[in-house]
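Q: What residues go here?
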């Protein structure tokens, strides 16, 4: 069975101003959980790259 998760996202109008928050439900399926380690690796690589760029600027 999929897990039902409540999430929030910021709403912006066409001119770019904030219009509040929207709550929505997201479903996580057991098959999707198997691909999560790849996303974690990608996030860590992005963080490492950002740290390297910050070190070069310093």
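A:
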């Amino acid at each position: 069975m999929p897990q039902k998760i409540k999430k929030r996202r910021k709403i912006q109008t066409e001119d770019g101003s904030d219009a509040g928050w929207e709550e929505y439900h997201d479903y996580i399926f057991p098959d999707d959980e198997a691909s999560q380690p790849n996303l974690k690796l990608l996030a860590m690589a992005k963080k490492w790259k950002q740290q390297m760029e910050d070190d070069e600027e310093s």
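A: Context that may help when evaluating the design: The two ends are 49 Å apart (CA to CA). Residues 3-57 form one domain.
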